[in-house]
Design brief:
Layout lengths: L1 E12 L27 E18 L2 E16 L3 E2 L2 E2 L8
Antiparallel strand pairs: 1-2, 2-3, 4-5
Length: 93
Amino acid sequence: MPFYSRSEVRGDEAGPLYIPAGAYLPPRVPQRRYDGPGRADYHSVAALKGLLLSVAPGADWLVRGGLFRSLYDDTIGTLTLRGRNLTNAFYAD
């Protein structure tokens, strides 16, 4: 039985990360308010496809198997830190 699934997100915003400077929690962040920069657009595309198999070679035998492929493309807008472009710095090729 073959199957396929795809999802796409366009024009969402990647929120900021709050990292405390010590051994304590950061203050509470207001809900439903975007505090990130306007350039932090977020786009992603995900796909999953595969095939499930069941074969009965004999009366007392049942062999099951599957093949799967999962793809995920995650793109965040240009991220800079002290003049360096870090957009792809966190992703391996």
